[in-house]
């Protein structure tokens, strides 16, 4: 056991010194390898983090949302629609919701305004998301002015800043009392943005939705499952873009590995010949090449993954967030909460480190099986 | 002395209250290992279809649908040889609309509808007659049946 270990150690030692002998070549190899892993791992981290944000967003979404339509566009819904809807068999609760968007011309950002029905802030005060706080450079107990739709400024006190559970969800959120919301947008008191409908038995959702449309032909019920599908296809579209990029990256990796595999230089072949003639077994030569490949691919893999982690979670994927995130320009800067999908990382590992190592061994094996003098002379 | 007895009785009252609160059947639910004695499926996976028979000793038999409950009830010697009909203290089924456990004896059951349970055709339990009628209309049900109308022949037709 001890003997086998020290044999490995000696060969690893030799492998490292032979890597150092061809410094320029191996460093450039390492850099290319790291770059490819960095790009792929960044994509994996980024899409994973976005999916997590979306899942958080939808976890609290109601089973069904009922919107009123006018000429095919979303309109405010009278709250008395809710009374009739809650009388439909199977509906356990109907809550009118008040929410909307506010464009802040000074800081050029869009905020999501919401009047929560459970524990709303008292009139005259707001609770804000961390992104809004960062953007407006305000903290608790500061005063904020929003320009209301009647033209008069609305003065509000910041009563708290929301914790960082999910940046994408809460970064741009401003919670306010229903009275302030109505004053801000000059909204009548008997209307809501939409109605959130809760149905006890999920099997009954479609029937309830049909009854709502029958009762109020000017409404559009949206089921959570439809929302999930929309988000899924959205991310799939982005994921689809990711697949293209991934395919390009993987393809370039294959070319690179193939190049490396087919191109065993004359010098390397000579070296294998010398090693064999001084008494190395074919197995030892293969072990040496295996260690050479493993050292490069493992360090490059680790470096690439670490760089990608820093890129996605500390710099908010600065390199490609504009391509993958929607309306990024009007959005308060946000940080993704780190999530790691072990499965995808191991797939990346298996798809990069293993083929690369194999690609280094096979030509060495071909060279090591011919006679030493022929290898040295060629 | 009088004060002591007052204190003592107060403590007894409190203790009895706590004890009765603990003994009162809290909203019962099947555990992760409870299997339907008729079909052998795990019951907790189908919370919308849970049905139960409570025995006088406080134990429950759990079913993944009212149909299996009635099959069990009609063939007690086969499924539970140690139990007697007299030992049954309550029968509970899930109301389709509210998903709450209701009394199986007073429930209205709709058969022949397009709503299937984990075991296929079901007797869909509903708390009120008006609800049963609406369900029948919405989901293409054939007939509303009451507890005493559910015979082995009817159960056979649902298989």
From TrEMBL, chain A:
GO terms for cellular component: plasma membrane protein complex. GO terms for biological process: lipoprotein localization to outer membrane. Belongs to the ABC-4 integral membrane protein family. LolC/E subfamily. It comes from the Bacteria. It holds the Pfam family FtsX. The chain crosses the membrane at residues 27-47, 239-258, 294-324, 345-368. It is a multi-pass membrane protein. The keyword Transmembrane applies. It is found in: Cell membrane. Residues 244-371 form the ABC3 transporter permease C-terminal domain. Keywords: Cell membrane, Membrane, Transmembrane, Transmembrane helix. InterPro entries: ABC3_permease_C, Lipoprotein-release_system. This is FtsX-like permease family protein.
Automatic annotation (TrEMBL), chain B:
Pfam families: NosL (PF05573). Residues 1-23 form the signal peptide. Keywords: Signal. The keyword Signal applies. It comes from Trichlorobacter thiogenes. InterPro entries: N2O_reductase_NosL. This is Nitrous oxide reductase accessory protein NosL. Gene3D superfamilies: 3.30.70.2050. SUPFAM superfamilies: NosL/MerB-like (SSF160387).
């Amino acid at each position: 056991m001890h003997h086998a270990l020290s044999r490995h150690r000696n060969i690893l030692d030799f492998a490292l010194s032979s890597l150092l002998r061809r410094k320029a070549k191996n460093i450039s190899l390492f850099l290319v390898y790291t770059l490819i892993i960095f790009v792929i791992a960044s994509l994996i981290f980024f899409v994973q983090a976005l999916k997590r944000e979306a899942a958080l967003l939808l976890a609290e979404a109601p089973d069904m949302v009922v919107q009123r339509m006018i000429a095919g566009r979303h309109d405010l819904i009278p709250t008395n629609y809710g009374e009739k809807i809650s009388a439909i068999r199977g509906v356990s609760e109907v809550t009118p919701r008040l929410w909307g968007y506010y464009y802040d011309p000074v800081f050029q950002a869009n905020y999501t305004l919401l009047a929560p029905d459970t524990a709303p802030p008292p009139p005259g005060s707001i609770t804000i998301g961390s992104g809004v706080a960062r953007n407006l450079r305000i903290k608790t107990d500061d005063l904020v002015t929003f320009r209301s739709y009647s033209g008069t400024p609305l003065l509000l006190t910041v009563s708290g800043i929301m914790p960082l559970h999910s940046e994408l969800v809460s970064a741009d959120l401003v919670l306010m009392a229903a009275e302030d919301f109505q004053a801000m947008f000059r909204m009548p008191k008997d209307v809501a943005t939409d109605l959130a409908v809760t149905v006890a038995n999920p099997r009954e959702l479609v029937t309830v939705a049909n009854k709502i449309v029958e009762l109020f032909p000017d409404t559009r019920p949206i089921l959570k499952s439809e929302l999930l599908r929309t988000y899924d296809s959205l991310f799939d579209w982005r994921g689809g873009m990711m697949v293209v990029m991934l395919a390009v990256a993987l393809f370039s990796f294959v070319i690179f590995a193939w190049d490396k595999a087919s191109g065993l230089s004359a010098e390397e072949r000579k070296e294998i010949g010398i090693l064999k003639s001084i008494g190395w077994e074919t197995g030892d030569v293969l072990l040496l090449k295996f260690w050479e490949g493993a050292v490069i691919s493992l360090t490059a893999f680790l470096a690439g993954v670490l760089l990608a982690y820093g890129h996605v979670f500390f710099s908010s994927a600065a390199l490609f967030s504009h391509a993958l995130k929607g309306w990024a320009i009007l959005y308060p800067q946000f940080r993704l909460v780190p999530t790691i999908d072990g499965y995808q990382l191991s797939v990346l590992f298996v798809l990069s480190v293993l083929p690369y190592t194999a690609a280094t061994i096979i030509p060495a094996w071909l060279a090591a099986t011919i006679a030493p003098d022929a290898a040295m002379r060629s | 002395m009088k004060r002591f007895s007052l204190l003592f009785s107060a403590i007894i009252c409190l203790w009895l209250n706590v004890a009765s609160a603990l003994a009162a059947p809290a909203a019962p639910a099947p555990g992760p290992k409870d299997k339907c004695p008729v079909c052998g499926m795990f019951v907790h996976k189908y919370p919308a279809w849970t049905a139960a028979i409570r025995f006088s000793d406080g134990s429950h038999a759990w079913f993944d649908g009212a149909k299996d409950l009635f099959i069990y009830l009609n063939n007690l010697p086969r499924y539970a040889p140690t139990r007697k009909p007299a030992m049954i203290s309550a029968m509970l089924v899930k109301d389709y609309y509210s998903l709450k456990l209701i009394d199986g004896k007073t429930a209205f059951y709709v058969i022949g509808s397009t709503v299937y349970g984990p075991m296929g055709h079901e007797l869909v339990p509903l708390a009120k007659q008006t609800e049963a009628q609406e369900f029948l209309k919405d989901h293409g049900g054939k007939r509303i049946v009451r507890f005493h109308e559910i015979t082995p022949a009817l159960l056979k037709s649902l298989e």
